[in-house]
Amino acid sequence: MACSSNLTLQKEVSQVLNSLRMGSIIGGCEDGLIYALYNEFCYGYESDDGCVSTQLPECQKDGDKFDQKSGDFIDRSYSNCYDNASISLGDCMQKCWEDCSCVGFTTSSAETGCIIWSGNGEFQVYESGIPVKKYVLVSSKSSKRKQKTWIWIVIIVAVVIPLLISGFIFYIIMRRRKLQDEKEKEEEYIRKLKASDSFNNTNLREEDGGEVHNLKIYSFGFILAATNNFSSENKLEEGGFGPVYKGKFPDEREVAVKRLSRTSGQGLVEFKNELILIAKVQHTNLVRVIGCCIHGDEKMLTYES
């Protein structure tokens, strides 16, 4: 029998008074077929075991069913008690099924009647502590909505996680490429500095803190360690050409590091000429420049403190 015929099946109460007091209600209408509302309630769709057809209530839809749950109805639900020894579990189910305001039912404690809940309240599931289970009417729309929600969750997870992983890998690759470009640019600056005849006359050498009285090229990591990562506590002043930080070399020498502003527009030639000029000028009232550092586009001068 197809669901489109708007028919549901029920068994004559006189034939199931005993058999309907135990078991679980699993009925409904799905996949184009009507199946019984109870596992012994016309199970198998036979028509020769006492089943009769009735009209499907207008308020019920294909796929509506009763689920046995442990919990209680809350908020705007109210209950009606039917204390009658002749009322079976199947009768309770039928009353709820045909009542458009019914949201669930159960048998009374003595199993001589039933309790039916109506209204707009929600059902709260309890994990434990409620021995009496209730049969809750579950709408096919609710089931489909939950199913769609899970489908969307799976789709989102399946799409978002690969995107996040791809984004992280892309970030790592771009960061490494940027660091490599900065290193190559730094090496190119240093190579050009060393290629200058005037700079060679000042005996510029790349060294990290040795006791040499000539100009030195310090690595960026060496300067970071000396200034405590350019911490605000080490900042001395903010000049027109950039901030000045105090630092300390491993040999306990105190120095001052001037970070030239990137917006100054000073190129490699100007930086080289300034460094050569300062190195050549020796005066008792002037601090002596002892070296420089180039990191990417950033240039720094190191002075005796």
Automatic annotation (TrEMBL):
<dbReference type="Pfam" id="PF07714">
    <property type="entry name" value="PK_Tyr_Ser-Thr"/>
</dbReference>
<dbReference type="InterPro" id="IPR003609">
    <property type="entry name" value="Pan_app"/>
</dbReference>
<dbReference type="InterPro" id="IPR000719">
    <property type="entry name" value="Prot_kinase_dom"/>
</dbReference>
<dbReference type="InterPro" id="IPR011009">
    <property type="entry name" value="Kinase-like_dom_sf"/>
</dbReference>
<dbReference type="InterPro" id="IPR001245">
    <property type="entry name" value="Ser-Thr/Tyr_kinase_cat_dom"/>
</dbReference>
<keyword id="KW-1133">Transmembrane helix</keyword>
<keyword id="KW-1015">Disulfide bond</keyword>
<keyword id="KW-0732">Signal</keyword>
<feature type="domain" description="Apple">
    <location>
        <begin position="59"/>
        <end position="130"/>
    </location>
</feature>
<keyword id="KW-0723">Serine/threonine-protein kinase</keyword>
<keyword id="KW-0472">Membrane</keyword>
<keyword id="KW-0325">Glycoprotein</keyword>
<feature type="transmembrane region" description="Helical">
    <location>
        <begin position="150"/>
        <end position="173"/>
    </location>
</feature>
<keyword id="KW-0418">Kinase</keyword>
<dbReference type="GO" id="GO:0004674">
    <property type="term" value="F:protein serine/threonine kinase activity"/>
</dbReference>
<feature type="domain" description="Protein kinase">
    <location>
        <begin position="230"/>
        <end position="305"/>
    </location>
</feature>
<keyword id="KW-0067">ATP-binding</keyword>
<keyword id="KW-0547">Nucleotide-binding</keyword>
<keyword id="KW-0812">Transmembrane</keyword>
<keyword id="KW-0808">Transferase</keyword>
<protein>
    <recommendedName>
        <fullName>non-specific serine/threonine protein kinase</fullName>
        <ecNumber>2.7.11.1</ecNumber>
    </recommendedName>
</protein>
<dbReference type="GO" id="GO:0005524">
    <property type="term" value="F:ATP binding"/>
</dbReference>
<dbReference type="Pfam" id="PF08276">
    <property type="entry name" value="PAN_2"/>
</dbReference>
